[in-house]
Amino acid sequence: MKVLETDRLILRRLTTDDAAFILELLNEPGWIRYIGDKGVRTLEDAKNYILTGPMKMYSQLGFGLFLVERKEGCTPIGMCGLLKRDSLEDVDIGFAFLSRYQTQGYGFEAASATLRYGHEQLGLKRILAITTLDNYASSRLLEKIKMKYEGTNS
Questions:
Q1: How confident is the model at residue 153, as a pLDDT?
Q2: Where in the numbering of this chain does the N-acetyltransferase domain appear (predicted)?
């Protein structure tokens, strides 16, 4: 189900049919380094991740992480969306892209559209973002979408 569209991208809800892509994305070195190893090693693990993560959040809240695909060729390139974590008071934006699609403006395009969607369609007043201190690429992207640094957790 398509949720958002930009000039070059479609953001849509994930389904278990996206398991092969999720298996690849969650095992990217950048994902493991900056987001963490989710233990997704098989297609079955990937399907379970989709069911218990994004699809569960869609049914509970109406939003979650969306698959980002290029319009040209319907190629899946990453995920971007809004999450409600138990550890945070507010919703936060999350994103991750296959390394071969990074530094091409896709993250900015997807994250900008997702922020607008959160504020305008969902009526969210405040959206957070979290990243590790050494994830410079994510920090730069967050600055580009006008997120303001508030501090670190120790």
A1: 64
A2: 9-154
